[in-house]
């Protein structure tokens, strides 16, 4: 997976993405993920890989400042169509692996269905943590391989084919967070969808 391919594949996904990932099962899962999310009034929120903005509808804090980045202009365009009039959302075309923000710029960083998509999830995670303020939170909803056992043969076989469609079904969250265990505390790691393949993860930056 690389950024050029992601731009191509998400150009194709853009017009139909919401039909799959913003309806029924996924919409319900998103609501679960946002339930009790630590987003007090006035928060500076960053959405990483915001896509078509499916999560933006779940924000209830009207006085928050929202920045939303994505590498795909076509996905961003869909989000802008829905939320472009809002003065409180700034959309930016940006690579989540090299963010153009100062350290500790945000109170909460929300990265849903994106660390399974970026070419280098380790780099993306490092950036997410860098731009989160101390005591701030990181909210992740994504699919991960199991932490305690190997990927099944079936998943190993279909993994390369699914990655052509723009996502990786075999990444390990434990591996992604391992270099940062002194910097972030895991507050939640809960199954959300498909027998725990999709998980809600809440981290707090402690230093
Ligand atoms: C599966 S979609 C998820 C979109 C949205 N977060 C959601 O929950 O529906 C993955 C998104 O990540 C974006 N993306 C892929 N590589 C990226 C990168 N290097 N930097 C920023 N966004 C990227 C894609 O363009 C796409 O919009």
TrEMBL record:
BP-aspect Gene Ontology terms: methylation
SUPFAM superfamilies the record matches: S-adenosyl-L-methionine-dependent methyltransferases
Pfam families the UniProt entry points to: Methyltransf_11
Alphabetized Gene3D superfamilies for the sequence: Vaccinia Virus protein VP39
GO molecular function: S-adenosylmethionine-dependent methyltransferase activity
Glycoprotein is among the record's keywords: no
Keywords assigned by UniProt, alphabetized: Methyltransferase, Transferase
UniProt xrefs under InterPro entries: Methyltransf_11, SAM-dependent_MTases_sf
Domain of life: Bacteria
Span of domain Methyltransferase type: 48-140
The protein's name: Methyltransferase domain-containing protein
Species of origin: Aneurinibacillus migulanus (Bacillus migulanus)
């Amino acid at each position: 997976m690389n950024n050029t391919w992601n731009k191509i594949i998400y150009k194709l996904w853009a017009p139909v993405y919401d039909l799959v990932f913003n309806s029924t099962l996924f919409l319900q899962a998103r609501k679960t993920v946002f339930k009790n999310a630590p987003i007090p009034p006035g928060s500076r929120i960053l959405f990483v890989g915001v896509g078509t903005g499916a999560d933006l509808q779940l924000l209830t804090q009207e006085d928050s400042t929202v920045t939303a980045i994505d590498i795909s202009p076509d996905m961003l365009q869909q989000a802008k169509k829905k939320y472009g009039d809002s003065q409180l959302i700034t959309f930016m075309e940006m690579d989540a692996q090299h963010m153009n923000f100062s350290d500790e710029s945000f109170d909460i960083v929300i990265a849903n269905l994106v660390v399974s998509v970026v070419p280098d999830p380790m780099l993306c995670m490092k950036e997410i943590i860098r731009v989160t303020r101390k005591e701030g939170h990181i909210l992740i909803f994504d699919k991960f391989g199991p932490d305690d056992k190997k990927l099944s043969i079936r998943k190993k076989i279909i993994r390369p084919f699914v990655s052509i469609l723009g996502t990786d079904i075999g990444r390990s969250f434990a591996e992604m967070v391992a270099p940062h265990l002194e910097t972030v505390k895991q507050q939640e790691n809960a199954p959300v969808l498909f027998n725990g393949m999709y998980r809600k993860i809440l981290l707090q930056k402690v230093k």
